[in-house]
Amino acid sequence: MATASLPLPRNLGKLHPFLFFLLFCSLSLCLPATATDKLLPGQDIRGNKTLVSPNQVFELGFFRTGGSSYVNYYVGIWFRDDPYQKPIWVANREYPIQDSSGVLTIRYDGNLVITDRRQIPVLVNTVMLATSNNTHATLLDSGDFVLVDEESQSVVWESFLYPCDTLLPGMRLGWFNLGTDKLRDQFLVSWQTPSVPSTGSFALGIDKNNQTMIRVWHYNFSREVGYWDGRRLRFLFNSSLEDYNFSYVTGSEEIYFTFTNRRNDSISWFVMAPSGEIQAFTMIGKEISIVYSPICENTSSLSATDCFIEQPLSCSNGNDFSKIEGVMLNPIVFNESDHLGISDCDVMCRTDCSCTGFASYRDDGTGCVFYYKDTSSILERIGQGNTTIFIRGNTTETKEDPRRSGSHNKRLLWLIGTSPVVILLISVAFSISRRKCSTCLVAVWKEKRTSTNRSLELFLQQMGSARGNSTSISRLNSVRKRIHELPILSFSSVATSTDNFSPANELGEGGFGPVYKGMLLGHEFAVKRLSRKSGQGIEEFKNEVQLISKLQHRNLVKLLGCCIEREEKILIYEYMENKSLDSFLFDPNKKQLLDWRKRVSIIEGIAQGLLYLHKYSRLRIIHRDLKTSNILLDDNMNPKISDFGLARIFGENEARARTNKVVGTYGYMSPEYAVHGLFSTKSDVFSFGVIMLEIISGRRNTTFADLERSLNLLGFAWELWNSNQGIELIDPVVADASLNGKLLLCLHIALLCVQELPEDRPSVSDIITALSNENADLPPPKKPAFSAHIDYCNSLHQQDRLTNDVSYSVVEAR
């Protein structure tokens, strides 16, 4: 444990964990001359405008991070007297704005939103929505940002309930709503890097299984950093506990700890740092002092992650790394994920003895590059570049007098230059005499076996993460949207797991190919194998791997690995015990297991997954093939959207796009897409509306026939609605007069989704809001698009004439 005081320029070399403050010295926005503590309807925060708490303790506004190549803007709160303005809370840490057009406002419905020139809103109070449009937001002297209902003067939402990396006095860490289905966990999560606010590798909070214990989690491992002994909190900072007044509160509905400052002339707070340290700050006036403690004893901030490796490898060249400044020469492996910080790179390299060095991929400290060769060439260039590189072993041994090492370097260069020639001559002679290079084959086999074992280990880690058996895994997964390295398994291991693709293990077949149940070391999973007769191919395979491996949401199926050996193209998913929604919905016996409340829950779950794809994922995704057979159900009948082979990424400024080849499933495609290849988020909304009608009625749209009234389910629902007979559409299995209000609400929303014109259809966020409010004031639905010859498509055809190669898929999968 160490102490320091900022600023002390001559000690900066010793205070490397705190240099992140300097990053904001030149990046923060200028302060306005006047400010208020309230944000009212019709007002906004943009540019240099800020909110300032009543006694000018805290300030809220936009700040920016980045460099010459890119800049990201965030809404944050910082101490007004902090000369570095390092934010202690960030509203949009996962959804940065790419330019200075960001605006924070109170929307027409009373909720806080951040928008930019694209007019795509980021909802700040996502979980706790306002029930009135008469609200205002206030920044308090405690650092809490609250949204208040004007009429009842009650707090709708507050930032203290959703901490980031900082614990301020009065904040609480713990478990809330105990004994209910709305259990909530409050904990700190580090920034990804000192200059990137998105969720990092470390989380600090109360252990769910032992609720008197404070732990830090990192990936699959954790460490105790404090506990309540019945009288006082025992913490890493025991030597400074006289500055804090800790409280531990336990009750029937909540268990948490909090603290206040003992001194009136100062304010103290804690930070879970990206390096894995817990930092305690104290500010007296404008001077900030800091006490920091690595979460593992006798380690520096860099090696603090050592204690999170359950069984550290005993590598021949050591398991410690030295930090140098130089040039990373021809790195072997790149991981460009902007979800990885330097501590992630450290763990990934440290657990692989063949990894000899690592560095960040980008200037902001995100992404990883790894080195697997001899590091002597890098060490010879120390000081010749400005890249921070971590080399395995103690580099001090190489820092000898250059004059004494000259002959050694020459001999080394001679050996490096002549070795390939000698090896080549030996190889040629050996091949002439033996006609084959068995030594080379053995080397290739060993390398392949090592790679396979690594992928197998990673795959099993993914399986454990998917099944959620570990508290520490679920804790970090709940806040991380990390893009994992996708395991690549051998064809032999996949074949073995499925009993050589036995028909007895086949779960179903879709447009991609058959799906099998696999079993490996006690873990179940689903294996989707591309069929040679499939209409889909390598492009759809690549599309699904690239897209779904980057998506993390409880209502999206999880991709665990793949196999691309020989001519095989295989995808491996988490296993869904209950298969697909259509296997229940359209089965006369099994549909009885779907009561009305479960069907509503499935509708809401699909909508949440779709909202993530359209709005909250880092990639804006249009699925393009939503249907009941692509909705899988887990053990608890929770829905998960699957099959992203036809999905497309939307550009930031795109409202709609066009394709020359229309692919999808007849009966679920919107008219503008089926006829002219135009697709947008509203195309998915149309498909979702069809799914809703199928869930409500228990009837399949693609095989519906009622010659007396309509040719399809959409038209039939429309006619019943117009004649005030909507209840007749309801599946008799779930008919219940007491539920008629919710039933008619869902039917109303479904008909709004399948309207002819895309602009008439609601957004997914509007759908979710309407589903939660039976008294919602919804517009009357217009005629649904159940005719291929619609006026809207004719008008589009006049605007831009284009003949599409249209192909339909009518295969019902899984």
Could you write a compact summary of the structure shown?
This protein is of the alpha+beta class and 814 residues long. Helices cover 24% and strands 25% of the residues. The chain is globular, with a radius of gyration of 30 Å.
Secondary structure elements and pairings:
Blueprint: E1 2-6, H1 20-23, E2 38-39, E3 44-46, E4 51-52, E5 58-66, E6 71-79, E7 89-90, E8 103-106, E9 112-115, E10 122-123, E11 135-139, E12 145-149, E13 155-158, E14 166-167, E15 173-176, E16 184-186, E17 188-193, E18 196-206, E19 213-218, E20 221-228, E21 233-235, E22 244-250, E23 254-261, E24 267-272, E25 277-284, E26 287-294, E27 321-326, E28 333-335, H2 342-350, E29 357-360, E30 368-371, H3 376-379, E31 387-392, H4 402-434, H5 438-467, H6 471-477, H7 491-497, E32 506-509, E33 514-520, E34 523-529, H8 538-548, E35 559-563, E36 570-574, H9 581-585, H10 596-616, E37 621-622, E38 631-633, E39 639-641, E40 648-649, E41 657-658, E42 661-662, H11 671-676, E43 678-679, H12 681-697, H13 713-722, H14 740-753, H15 764-771, H16 791-799, E44 805-806
Parallel strand pairs: 42-44
Antiparallel strand pairs: 1-26, 2-11, 3-8, 4-5, 5-6, 6-7, 8-9, 9-10, 11-12, 12-13, 14-24, 15-16, 15-23, 17-18, 18-19, 19-20, 20-21, 22-23, 24-25, 25-26, 27-31, 28-30, 29-30, 29-31, 32-33, 33-34, 34-36, 35-36, 37-40, 38-39, 41-43
Helix pairs in contact: 10-12, 10-15, 12-14
